[in-house]
Amino acid sequence: MDSEDPRRASISKNSEWLEISIDSLCCVAGERLSGEILLHLANNTKNLSIILKSRGIEHVKVLEPNGNVHEHTSNIYTLNTTLSEFVELGKVQSIWPFTFKLPLFSPASFDFADTDSLGNSIKCQVSYEIEAILCSETDDVVKCKKKFFVYNRNTRKVLGGEVSEETPLSCCWCCTQGMSKVSLGYIDLEHMSCGATKNYRIDVQSTLNRKLESLMGQVMFKLYVQIPNGKIFEFMKVLSRTVPQLNAIFDGNADKNSLTLDFEVDLSNANYGENPCSNDCALFGAEYYLQFYATYDVGCRSKRAFAEMELHINPVAPVKETLKLPGRWDPKENLISNLILEASNGIPYPQGTVLSNRNRINNN
Q1: Where does the Arrestin-like N-terminal domain start and stop, copy by copy (predicted)?
Q2: Average pLDDT for residues 36-54, to the nearest whole number?
Q3: Which of 48, 68, 121, 234 is at a distance of 20 to 30 A from 351, taking alpha carbons?
């Protein structure tokens, strides 16, 4: 897809003005994207029509050290429809409301670029765009194109509970001194976003906590690319690693057998793309994990207890800009269009019920 600023103004010629207003720049997979096409013409003397296009695509490119290039694109959906076959003559101020339902499986907007441990340069992208075209019988008069952002359906999951792992603390294969239970839980029940910082609750329970040597937590990012010819590329990176001070942890807990601490997850240094969020796509997948280790001295060796929790990370959408309308804006509003998206094989997606109680764009 074209790498254009999603907040860009429309391209205009002379006195033509065409704009797309989207109710929200961010939408969840399976929900409706709604908006309006706005048109102002000082004096239309041509036979013009309004076309609306939209598409979502996945794109991956892997450059191996030996020079081999693997590049693939997969369509999530496409839309190409005529909203109005005839635009009235003379002065025109009109609005064409539209709505369409995104496929439930739509992956999140995504951007990643980095090099793995084997020297493979990996780029992955998921992007969505919508374009309005005012055209004559022979050419395009004026266009407006904008990007919008999508959260995948996992953002609907309600956070809660905890993940726990129990580990036997043994000095040899036949002698167990006790057990350690490491639990990871939520403090804030909102999903994280790329570049954000958030605290999670850690519990370490064991009658052998007095034998703790160290505590350590880290955030792991994993990305895999599945090339259609069967080759798989993997990228793993520790984003942050923290070693809490044991003395401070013991001082903050009255019960030494049950230690509780807040652990900060910091994604601000994830400098391998604009939106490397959690995703599950046709060509690649991306995952985040909070991992915590408690290491004990159990005699002749150290024993490590461990727990891991997958984190769902959302992309970050830009702030919606205020639309600048032409002077004396008093448009004619047309009926809302319920548009049908198509898969790459041309099969339409089900759309469901259309809600028409939308706010009209005006000067108020």
Answers
A1: 28-150
A2: 90
A3: 48
